[in-house]
């Protein structure tokens, strides 16, 4: 088979798997699990084959036009360069892991068939985005992901949190997608084509008329999809979905799509200095803010969600300094360790019966209950905190190195200011990342108090996947940083000494600070009992998690925050802790700025409609009614009256006809 | 206004006629006509219902005389037989069966009377005006053989009009059946109701 | 004879009958007025037939034949009419036309009438 055929099969197989799963889900339950796992696995093999054949060489382009579509043609096109080949491998890899993990995690869930099919569809859509060489086809995958995320986040739709979160995820990403669509149209019109290669060619020849406008419009869609400030608010709430879905959304698919999109079209953004600065500011605010917020979260998954936002900030930061190699490098390594973090968190939530860190910190011996999760999560947290030699170190240092490179003004098309912004924010975030990673580890695994409840052994499908994912988290960065430039732009990804020392040093400082604070506060833990545990030893992990999410707000008064005096973040953040837990009240700001005015306007419109417009309508009805009442009086029922009127009319008519006929 | 265009032929043939030289027939016609009209007026205005029926006899009889004066003798006898003989009897039966009051009834006219008067006068004015204007110079020649003798009428009726004549019998049959159905249904509703009117259509059929 | 005489008499009789139809309250009197109107028409038919039978070459005596038909149909009409009046009288206890107002627009727009009114309509 040619490479093109293989590449077409990569997104097609999960799609067919999804269709078959949806069709056969009820009639043939025995086929659901194979149909869920095998297509992504086959896609993984094929994507790896495609990557091997592409081999970092020149991009593979293939296209066919199904039908003429007006002035700007839309073509089914593939554009596989080194970025696409490697990201596709990551997507297929994570999706396969998630599917295998889900067979254990949701083994008793009655809605598993539709869930598995939607995950397959999600994977297929992301692979389409990755391989597509045409912006409109890319948009199709982009939107299919949006609707799949809506369904998957709302998987536990019995709980109001899940319903609200799924709606929020859908609406917020759609809010970004509208300008994104307009931006795509503007780009296609300016370039005369939706093909990525032609668009890039147009940009290279300076043929773009409105680079800033287009870049900013596209940026809005990217901010929505990749959860960048100010459209990131859906991501922490999306934790109401099952943990494997969070892993899939956060590690490899939806949020990565935005970063990947900018990486593909980076020249378009580089054509506008303003867009690059906006991108840098966006990345900086996202990074620093999410680090602070992550430090204050009580829900283990929300910590990870904010950390995802922060790591995505690193990627956009790398893009803002014009180094897409570093961005995609971080995307790949982050995909591996973040998937691992989420899946391990799922195991921990199952074992502990709660998603609250405050409750876990009052449990003894949780790490002995789930040794696999303990060790793999330690690896992943070290990778997240960018401690050498874990993979996160190399990818994050490549970002910081690129930023440092840009501060000196050595990078073309990138203003030095963007470099400084990204560098400073990146270093600050390195500190925060290490701090919240340490806090998560300490609270989850070094708890003191009662014995952790026994939920039985974790299913093998769940623990094996953790070890499979631990390998790239541990080794990918170190092994790949030399060979990756050959696949990417050719720019060096080796860590520079200065940023390495700075970044690692800050990370160590952050970790030590947190440890010190934990030492002082953990003594308080025994004195203030806290926490609610959902004990369902017989239930599957999904059930436990759903219950844990549903009980968090009743137990602690907030979905993200626990009034725990033993939390080290209380010392570290001080008065900032409460607003940080609430995501700096950005939702409240949105409510005040947008929701209330819109509701007020709606109230005004309703008033106008009911009281003003309807008055005219009622009057229009009342006037004929009065007229009818008047005419009705003639309807006496007396036949003689009727005949009188009839004959009088006849006489009048006859006389009139006579007068006319005789010309008088 | 000039509708006289319809009768130029008669105008030319009978020029010596005039209003100021009435013939005997004309005088008789006028007198009987006045009596007929008067009887008709009393019929529609009297407050005694039975009197109205009796005055109707006078009016219909007067019309029969007018037919005779117009030399339509067969029509005249039919008029006497059917109208004066049977229709008025029927009407009197009807009055009796509906328990019409004997004597003056103050509410014989409805409240619609003045509107009716206005409409009637307006149409009378219009009709008379038109008719007079159209036929003021037209004369009927009543000399020679009678235009409506039994022989002539019978010949035309059974030569030219025999098919409509037979069709008319179907109509009468339908009327007969209809009257029976109407009466019987009423009887089913009110069990011991008077049924004297049931054989009335049959009588009429015989009168034909 | 002057043709205007029977024509004018016919017109006046017709209008007299018209007045009776419109003004009389008792249904049988209305029927009488209808008879007067029919007779007025008959007079017209006869008069014009006599006039035309003298002036025209060939005549079908259509006026007189039509008069005969009219008389017959009028007889049938009065039979049916009286049957209807009697049925109404039996149902309502009256034959006054201006009391038969079932089709009147009542104060209540819905529901055209009581069951009694519907029965009367069915039998009338």
From TrEMBL, chain A:
InterPro entries the record matches: NADHpl_OxRdtase_5_subgr, ND/Mrp_TM, NU5C-like, Proton_antipo_N
Membrane-protein topology: Multi-pass membrane protein
Residue ranges of domain NADH-Ubiquinone oxidoreductase (complex I) chain 5 N-terminal in the record: 68-115
Keywords: Membrane, Oxidoreductase, Transmembrane, Transmembrane helix
Enzyme class: oxidoreductase
UniProt-listed Enzyme Commission number(s): 1.6.5.-
Domain NADH:quinone oxidoreductase/Mrp antiporter transmembrane residue range list: 132-403
Record field: transmembrane: 6-24, 36-56, 76-100, 112-130, 136-157, 169-187, 199-224, 245-263, 275-296, 303-321, 327-352, 373-394, 414-438, 459-481, 493-518, 642-661
Domain of life according to the entry: Bacteria
Location in the cell: Endomembrane system; Membrane
Primary location recorded for the protein, binned into one broad class: membrane
Gene Ontology molecular-function annotations: oxidoreductase activity
Keyword Oxidoreductase: yes
Designated name of the protein: NADH-quinone oxidoreductase subunit L
Originating organism: Streptomyces musisoli
From TrEMBL, chain B:
InterPro entries in the cross-refs: NADH_UbQ/plastoQ_OxRdtase_su6, Nuo/plastoQ_OxRdtase_6_NuoJ
Swiss-Prot/TrEMBL keywords: Cell membrane, Membrane, NAD, Quinone, Transmembrane, Transmembrane helix
One Pfam family of this chain: Oxidored_q3
Transmembrane segments: 27-45, 52-70, 76-102, 114-132, 161-182
Membrane topology: Multi-pass membrane protein
Subcellular location: Cell membrane
Known catalytic reactions: a quinone + NADH + 5 H(+)(in) = a quinol + NAD(+) + 4 H(+)(out)
Enzyme class per UniProt: translocase
Enzyme Commission number(s) from the entry: 7.1.1.-
Chain spans, region Disordered: 189-208
Function summary: NDH-1 shuttles electrons from NADH, via FMN and iron-sulfur (Fe-S) centers, to quinones in the respiratory chain. Couples the redox reaction to proton translocation (for every two electrons transferred, four hydrogen ions are translocated across the cytoplasmic membrane), and thus conserves the redox energy in a proton gradient.
Family from the record: Belongs to the complex I subunit 6 family.
The name this protein goes by in its record: NADH-quinone oxidoreductase subunit J
Organism name: Streptomyces musisoli
TrEMBL record, chain C:
Keyword Transport listed: yes
Keywords, ordered alphabetically: Cell membrane, Membrane, NAD, Oxidoreductase, Quinone, Translocase, Transmembrane, Transmembrane helix, Transport
Enzyme Commission no: 7.1.1.-
Topology of the protein relative to the lipid bilayer: Multi-pass membrane protein
Keyword Glycoprotein on entry: no
Spans annotated as Disordered: 98-124
Entry-linked InterPro entries: NADH_UbQ_OxRdtase_chain4L/K (IPR001133), NUOK/Mnh_C1-like (IPR039428)
UniProt catalytic activity: a quinone + NADH + 5 H(+)(in) = a quinol + NAD(+) + 4 H(+)(out)
Location within or outside the cell: Cell membrane; Membrane
Enzyme class per UniProt: translocase
Main function: NDH-1 shuttles electrons from NADH, via FMN and iron-sulfur (Fe-S) centers, to quinones in the respiratory chain. The immediate electron acceptor for the enzyme in this species is believed to be a menaquinone. Couples the redox reaction to proton translocation (for every two electrons transferred, four hydrogen ions are translocated across the cytoplasmic membrane), and thus conserves the redox energy in a proton gradient.
Subunit comment: NDH-1 is composed of 14 different subunits. Subunits NuoA, H, J, K, L, M, N constitute the membrane sector of the complex.
Family per similarity comment: Belongs to the complex I subunit 4L family.
PANTHER family (alphabetical): NADH-UBIQUINONE OXIDOREDUCTASE CHAIN 4L, NADH-UBIQUINONE OXIDOREDUCTASE SUBUNIT ND4L
Protein's recorded name: NADH-quinone oxidoreductase subunit K
Native organism: Streptomyces musisoli
